[in-house]
What we know:
Blueprint: H1 2-14, H2 16-36, H3 51-62, E1 72-78, H4 88-101, E2 107-110, E3 125-132, H5 141-156, E4 160-164, H6 177-193, H7 196-224, H8 228-258, H9 263-290, H10 298-329, H11 349-353, H12 360-370, H13 372-387, E5 395-396, H14 408-419, E6 428-433, H15 440-452, E7 457-460, E8 464-465, E9 471-478, H16 485-505, E10 508-512, H17 514-548, H18 552-577, H19 582-585, E11 593-594, H20 597-625, H21 630-657, H22 665-697, H23 706-711, H24 720-737
Parallel strand pairs: 5-11
Antiparallel strand pairs: 1-3, 1-4, 2-3, 6-9, 6-10, 7-9, 8-9
Helix pairs in contact: 1-2, 1-9, 1-10, 2-7, 2-10, 4-5, 6-7, 6-21, 7-8, 7-10, 8-9, 8-10, 8-21, 9-10, 9-17, 9-20, 12-21, 12-22, 13-18, 13-22, 15-16, 17-18, 17-20, 18-20, 18-22, 20-21, 20-22, 21-22
Amino acid sequence: MATFLYKLGRISFRRRHFVALIWVALLTLAGVGAAGAPAAGNSSFSIPGTEAQKAFDLLEQRFPGTSADGATARVVFKAPSGEKMTDPGNKATVQETVKELADGSEVVRVTDPYQAKAVSKDGTIAYAQVSYKVSGMELEDSSRDALEDTAQHARKAGLTVEIGGDALQTVPHTGTSEIIGIAVAAVVLVITFGSLVAAGLPLLTALIGVGIGVSSITALASALDLGSTTSTLAMMIGLAVGIDYALFIVARYRAELAEGRDREEAAGRAVGTAGSAVVFAGLTVVIALVGLSVVNIPMLTKMGIAAAGTVAIAVLIALTMIPALLGYAGRRVKPAGEKGRLLGRAKTQEEQKKPAKPNLGTRWASFVVRRPIAVLLLGVIGLGAAAVPAASLELGLPDDGSQPTSTTQRRAYDLLSEGFGPGYNGPLMVVVDAKDSDDPKAAFTKVGDEIKGLKDVVTVTPPAPNKAGDTATITVIPDSKPSSVATEDLVHSIRAKGAGIKADSDANVLVTGQTAMNIDVSEKLNDALIPYLVLVVGLAFLLLIVVFRSILVPLKAALGFLLSVMAALGAVVAVFQWGWLADLMGVEQTGPVMSMMPIFMVGVVFGLAMDYEVFLVTRMREAYVHGEQAGQAVVTGFKHGARVVTAAAVIMMAVFAGFIGSSEPMVKMIGFGLAIAVFFDAFVVRMAIVPAVLALLGRKAWWLPRWLDRALPNVDVEGEALRSQSERENKERALART
């Protein structure tokens, strides 16, 4: 592989006009496609295989035109102090509001609070429910505007009016903080390279790669049902890995220049060596992201595949466009150790004759090699302490109760809880399929009676059958809030009763609604976590055996990842569930951690963790293969790689942290989780635990059974073929001179 990439790097350097033209053409094509594509909202949310989804599908068949899974809005009214909602003036205002709400083009029906008995016992609060033809993710902005305008009219009449439900879902925005993340990355690159030109290359190529990736997602969003969160994730990961991959190749290019090679040869060798590490690091990220498809949640699968595509583009750009741009930059990119005008002067001849002072990476690695047990224990204990909050992890999906108190959704949630009880915010819909039953009406009645006898039930509405009389819906109001354990237990209790009813009357009982859907999604994600972990870690473990030709090094890499991801989950729990540093992070409302967070962090963090493992340890492997002792190879690896890996980690943390400013709780939580995970993995696991373990293992770290060594393909990440080729060429030149 090193030889192939070496040739690719030289060709890209030599044919830089052609390479640059191709990438600019691709960016232009993607941009034109995105500009002409219809705007994307959020992707439709379906969960194949869950009972809640089966019930929605059944309702579409048996109750055509009712849009069972359509968006809903609860418009909550509160009378002024000392008045009641039943007063004639207030009642007239509400009825006029209901009439206005029913005029919407996407509205299916609106319930009148006075006919539906949706007025609180004390008469101060009432609510109307608006049902739409399409889901909240597909609702047009005009319908949302009409909903808010109608509520404003009622407010002018003196009522307090708030709106809850999923009809007000909006496309998240990330604010200006992501720009700050890119600015921090630029500063780190300038400090690392000491040159604006060298620092600008990784930023430029990363932005081009992300531009192509995100524009392609935007262009295909409508056709493939890709939501706005998909492009946000692709941008987040694409920027981080794009800058990092380019950074490693530019750094290796400068190191090759420092060894006296001409610029084209240096570009070829940089791509042949560092480029090999980039390819395998990118593969681990792609495996982790594509592996999200095993969860069988279409939205998560699309997010993973789209982000993986952006990572693949970042790899290709790093391998081709970076050497092309290095050709354009010429002497403005200086050899390693030679500062540009920006950060200092060039060394004098006397200074160049003096022995170079060991850099910080060399000194740190030498310390770890001398004190491996102390460093290992300190690192493991520190991560273990950070992981402690993860033992209190509570999972759930956000509802209006998790919104900031400044939002109308949260205020509507609180008003409903005040007037009717918390369960009214998450009603359950029970669907009774009595098509195979001898007496459907008796089956409907039996289901209602059985549910009334369950714990935590406040209200059970009479069965509402369809025209054929073979299917009915029953609304159940729990006594607890939607995200509570008690409501989850109630859903399971109703389903358990349904199994007995099925045996007695051949009627199927299905529980659905937004609350039941959230419970099913959480359980599906929890059940998929272990299989996903085994699949992703297993495939990457095999890949790393090929890269490092070792058993213990990949095993150590996987165990280190588990430490860092558990510590990161602990930090997420501490901030988003316990509320530590919540004000600093802009977390207005604490609550359960989103159900998809653990499996998503496992996937993305594993891919990123293996990035640093590959970049750092391949340098050690390279030194070991070329004859150094195991301990010295660790020091050599840090000498050449620690500064660049540190810069890469800081850049990645800055990019991820930039998304903490998002208005979308999931994006905010992902941004924080990935940033803290990169910190733990890069600076504790890869910079401390990894060299300590390798120092303790010595030569055993690179042990591989002979039969496996013969069976594995030789991918030559270390560039041994390039070194052999260089030695042959030097001998030939020496012979020619003699």
